[in-house]
């Protein structure tokens, strides 16, 4: 019998990774890709240049209608999607821009996840349905001006005053902060670190926006200021005590980054591939030169190895077997390789690579922030080093 005909080679899916996805997963991916192509890509260069994300509340409601907000959570209006579906959504959103993916990650994987996992039934019912629809935006206040990688050193403090809590402190680099209807704020107490739900408009609470950024420019980034903010007893998240609470939220968000960073890398790789096939120098397309082909081959290798890694971690999360160290493995590798892909793509585009007419430099600068938040390179190296050796080198 003759051998069956092989499928054609697809330069944009050289390993045939689409075969790993179910029809439902492809449908989710394609829906978000079309939305991003219609709502984000025509405007993102201008938004990035202006340093703003206009219409963020409308975008949040549209993302809610897509089921993208808190999509892995179950109940209270959340979609209950799989980890792989959520990962594909993160990839497609970040292929448009990291700022849009950050909006979704902070809303779902940090703020909503914290309420869903650690909140009371009353807190879940009060906040989650509106957040799932995008009617209420949330933020997550953990990082402080002097405490990033070491959240255990936080200075924000909550003290009891009768039946109330009074919070004082500052949080820094908070995505969605200035537009959030509720902030999940972590603070030290006499009983250890606790999480609090701080509604916008609470007396003493403000969220001034951080300007003059050269990365994540199409994103709302804020400081949170808590000046003796008085909250009722039911503002505390009853299920979270100690650092385990916020760190579990960060691990959930890191998983989305494992996928999302590859969206930025894919967009940059595809821009470089198209450019190399069209741009002529010395009488031929630059894609016909050996050095350019070597760059494209190496970029494709790292991009699609990263997608395989993300897919594997997603299947493990869906099976309930994904460990935090494995998420660190993915975050460390995929963001680092994504930045390398963007930088190599820029060299193929030459001087055009720094223009906002192409997405490459925008993605490269965004990924500098992605490399840092939810755990720096060094922190994830130490997480893996401890897992490999059994020796804690953090202190």
TrEMBL record:
Stretches assigned to the Acyl-CoA oxidase/dehydrogenase middle domain: 139-229
Keywords, ordered alphabetically: FAD, Flavoprotein, Oxidoreductase, Transit peptide
InterPro entries attached to this UniProt entry: Acyl-CoA_Oxase/DH_mid-dom, Acyl-CoA_Oxase/DH_mid-dom_sf, AcylCo_DH-like_C, AcylCo_DH/oxidase_C, AcylCoA_DH/ox_N, AcylCoA_DH/ox_N_sf, AcylCoA_DH/oxidase_NM_dom_sf, Glutaryl-CoA_DH_mitochondrial
Residue ranges occupied by any Acyl-CoA dehydrogenase/oxidase N-terminal domain in the UniProt entry: 22-135
Domain Acyl-CoA dehydrogenase/oxidase C-terminal residues, every copy: 241-388
SUPFAM superfamilies documented for this protein: Acyl-CoA dehydrogenase C-terminal domain-like (SSF47203), Acyl-CoA dehydrogenase NM domain-like (SSF56645)
Co-factor(s): FAD
Family under the similarity heading: Belongs to the acyl-CoA dehydrogenase family.
PANTHER family (alphabetical): GLUTARYL-COA DEHYDROGENASE, MITOCHONDRIAL (PTHR42807:SF1)
Name of protein: Acyl-CoA dehydrogenase family protein
Species assigned in the record: Streptomyces gamaensis
Phylogenetic classification of the source organism: Bacteria, Bacillati, Actinomycetota, Actinomycetes, Kitasatosporales
């Amino acid at each position: 019998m003759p051998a069956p005909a092989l499928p054609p080679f697809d330069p944009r899916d050289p390993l045939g990774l689409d075969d790993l996805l179910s029809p439902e997963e492809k449908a989710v991916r394609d829906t978000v890709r079309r939305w991003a192509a219609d709502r984000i890509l025509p405007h993102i260069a201008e938004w990035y240049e202006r340093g703003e994300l206009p219409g963020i509340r409308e975008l949040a409601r549209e993302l809610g209608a897509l089921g993208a907000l808190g999509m892995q959570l179950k109940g209270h209006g959340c979609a209950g999607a799989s980890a792989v579906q959520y990962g594909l959504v993160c990839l497609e959103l970040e292929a448009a821009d990291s700022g849009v993916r950050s909006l979704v990650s902070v809303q779902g994987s940090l703020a909503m996840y914290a309420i869903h996992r650690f909140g009371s039934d009353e807190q879940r019912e009060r906040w989650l349905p509106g957040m799932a629809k995008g009617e209420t935006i949330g933020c997550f206040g953990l990082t402080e001006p002097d405490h990033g990688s070491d959240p255990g050193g936080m200075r924000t403090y909550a003290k009891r005053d009768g039946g109330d809590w009074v919070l004082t402190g500052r949080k820094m680099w908070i995505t969605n902060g200035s537009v959030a209807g509720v902030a999940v704020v972590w603070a030290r107490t006499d009983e250890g670190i606790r999480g609090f739900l701080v509604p916008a408009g609470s007396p003493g609470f403000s969220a001034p926006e951080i300007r003059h950024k050269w990365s994540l420019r199409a994103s709302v980034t804020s400081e949170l200021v808590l000046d003796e903010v008085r909250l009722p007893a039911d503002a505390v998240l009853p299920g979270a005590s100690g650092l385990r609470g916020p760190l579990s939220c960060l691990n959930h968000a890191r998983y989305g980054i494992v996928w999302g960073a590859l969206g930025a890398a894919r967009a940059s790789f595809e821009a470089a591939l198209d450019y190399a096939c069209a741009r002529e120098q010395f009488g031929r397309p630059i894609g016909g030169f050996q050095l350019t082909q070597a760059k494209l081959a190496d970029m494709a290798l790292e991009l699609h190895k990263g997608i395989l890694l993300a897919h594997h971690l997603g299947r493990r999360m869906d099976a309930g077997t994904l460990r935090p160290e494995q998420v660190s493995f993915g975050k460390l590798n995929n963001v680092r390789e994504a930045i390398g892909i963007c930088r190599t793509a820029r060299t193929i585009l030459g001087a055009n690579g720094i223009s906002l007419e192409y997405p490459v430099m925008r993605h490269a600068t965004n990924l500098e922030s992605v490399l840092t938040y939810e755990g720096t390179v060094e922190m994830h190296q130490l997480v893996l080093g401890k897992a490999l050796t059994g020796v804690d080198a953090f202190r």
